[in-house]
## 1
Amino acid sequence: MPIIDISFPQGALREQAKQDLPNVLGQIALGYEGLKGSRFAEAFTWVYVNELPQAQVTQVSGTPPKPIYRVRFTTLQTLLDDESKKRLGVDTARAIYQAEGTSWNAREAHNRVWTFFEDVRQGDWIVGDQVNRIEDLKAAAAKELAASSQESVA
């Protein structure tokens, strides 16, 4: 259950895309974490959308010709391996292009969408008055999914 921060310049996305993108990115991330479909996990996946004035999102070389995006996923250490992070980064860039209404261009995305991962050591993420532990989170999500599958069978 990640914390997701996305930063971009004003005007880069339409209002509907700004509303939809947090859920899209959250669902993609939950899929890689093995928690997709869990309402419990969704409630603990927070997304911070940082739309900044255009002059505050720039490059040293000057104003970028197209919007640039920075995305940060904060997760518990070991929840995602290197391959999952790579695929999540590519899927994130593709989702942003789709939100923009822009055709996918891997070469161009190399300098437009950067995704960073912050792995928090277990014990260093406190939620309220409890330590956020992978085993506890997965157990709670599995219990919820099992209960919902039993309800749909009944």
Note: Residues 134-153 form the longest helix (20 residues).
## 2
Amino acid sequence: MANATRLTEGNPFSTLLRFSLPFLLSNILQACYGASDLFMVGRFSDSVGVCAVATGSQVMQTITGLSIGLTAGGTVLIGRYYGARQRQNVAHAVKTMMVVFGAISLALTAATLLLLDPICRLMQVPPEADAATKQYLFLCSCGILFIVGYNVISGILRGLGDSRTPLLLIAVACVINVSTDLLFVGGLRMGAAGAAVSTVLAQLVSLVLAVLYLAAKGLLRSYRRSAPCFRLVAAKGVLSAGLPIALQEGLVNVSFLVITAMINRMGLIASAAVGVVEKLIMFSMLPATAFSAALAALTAQHFGAGLMGRAKRCLGLAIGMSLLFGMACMLLAQTNPASLVGLFTTDPQVIAQGSLYLRSYSIDCVLVSFVFCMNAFFSGGGHPVFPLVHSLIATFFVRIPISGLFIHAAAPSMLSIGFAAPAASLLSLLLCLWFFLRHFPNPSQKAKCAKPSPLPSRT
């Protein structure tokens, strides 16, 4: 299989670093072309446009997170079969992913288009930004098929150990998005609508290039020859591995939506401030996200090969590298928050409120360095449900209640509201440590797991 790489061989540090760097660069580029919408609208539009893009992008990020989580299940399953050298099962899983996620993307598109009004009402969008937010969401919803399609192909390639090709694809998409943002938002002054059109075009191009790459490498012909095109067992495997990850991602994004909706009731300035800070936090967490995503694929191959002792060493390395970036981002946010918020807006009120929110929220950058990597290790190592469980607990028993408490205080402060995120992550970290010590007590021993069973010859 073209560009496939076995991650169970060689020095653990160099293997993890070599495989993680394309993830990190891909995430940075993807965040750049996502943030370029907010940046351009902040520079060439007003607070109404910033609020529309900030709120609309939160909704789209929830959909994107679900697709990334679900396709991560395919990455894990393919990684396990590839690590176990079950080539025929890899082909079945690949084709099943395409069928399953094609249907899911169409369902998500229809649901979003039909629920535009309820979504904006639930998000408590300020009246001034209601029309712009609906327009932004409508246009972005037309690209859901492209988002899911790109993530499916990227998930397939990463499961085979190829993290470089998704990087190249997203680099092209980034260039297209930034350049068309300059045209539609900066030149034609289309505001939030122009940012949405630019994003959809970039997503379409990235998907087309991904399909052309698979065709050029002969992978489409190879998978087409491997009948059948859909296996119920493979679909169950993809969904059982991906659904907990998707629900975990969904819960995090739902908590963002709930908190954003509550803050939107505080007015346009608070809403815009939260949207800007969420973009900054997303950037700061990119290293932890990249190392954890690489660790999930790496752990899956080790799980398939029965080498979980080595995977645990990679877990420690991933946490260490994530922590270096997380601490640097937190220190920068503590020392100069106004300059960071000022990258996305020139409104002094938004900068002042956003700086307060960023100071307390940025503590989360350190905590998620542990939580993200441990979640990836659990998911790739055959325990995908626990990350969902502790996310449920942290979201609904800590983050949302604490946010609501401070938002509805007599004198609400953005500084206080921002502490809800690190408080939730701290609880998740404690639960992860407990689970790790209980289920992986001896770091030197091999995991007591068998290689994944071959798919049966009949569905």
Note: The two ends are 24 Å apart (CA to CA).
## 3
Amino acid sequence: MDSRALHGVNLTGWLTLRSWVTPGLFADSGALDEPTLIRAVGERRYHEIIEQHHASFIKQADFVQIAGRGFNAVRLAVPWYVFGEDGPEPGPYIGCIDYVDKAFEWAEDVGLKVVLALGIAPGREAEGSGLVHDHERFSEYRQDMVAVLSALADRYKMREGFYGLEVADDPLAQTRRGLVLTDGVSLHDLRGYYREAYEAIRDAAGPDPVVILPDADQPRAWRAFMAQSRYQNVWLDSHLYHYTDNADSTGPLGVRRLVEASSRYLAEARKSGLPTMVGKWSGSLPYPDSLMTPEGRIALERVFIAEQIGAFRDCPAWFFQTWKTNGRLVGWDARVALATFERRMLD
């Protein structure tokens, strides 16, 4: 296993659709997510849209550019129906395992490592995020997801570029607020799934791939969890966004406070005893006041990004969100947000 820290980008919106990444795919239908898109345009048209999108949005040239910018890894979310008819009942969705194969080929050609993330979001079913066909509760599809993780681990265990596998993309843990339980999946069920997923990946691929566990927005919930010697190469993943924070980010002091918040979050997560990576982060700041100019915001976001990179220096990996968006969104599209950073700051 390469001991260098991974500094990379997400490939969000390629194999798992996101309307903010590729709004053009959704514009004519009025849909905001994939299930709604299917209902709006019908299965035949949906298949045409998806096949064209998969073939055109990310290509080999993107991997060449990613490596050329100084990154050494990509994080690729794959949908639960990645195997199509060879996996759990896909319903109207179509598989994309051939494109995952291509991603490995393209990554290995330029020396990039690949971290796969299973694109499910347990606890967010009510939002339609990562919703598994015909299942509204995590308990109904949990075993199928363990099987998908096992199949992915087995398929790529011999690939040079295969670095690790994340067992979910963005789960939401249930918490108690006073006498009320919030939406989400219980920590008990999530921990059970993580243990099952670990065993399935190890049985399929051995001890080398890193098994990555999302912290489910609860950095304090994992102390001593799977940190025992019987578990090997296990990381915790924290997603650190600040664009919705209620904070003043109109000057360097405000930016510094946001970065300090990231550092405190990571400090809590590291008390788990597990190496903690940052699977998603962006350069987007909280909404500015009316006096800030676009040029001033861009300058502050550059400072923010540099400070964040510094805050992540002890992490085994970080992945910017994301490599590309059709609208070249400032703060989110690495081709724009990181364009002025020197290679040595990234590698």
Note: Residues 134 and 158 are 34 Å apart (CA to CA).
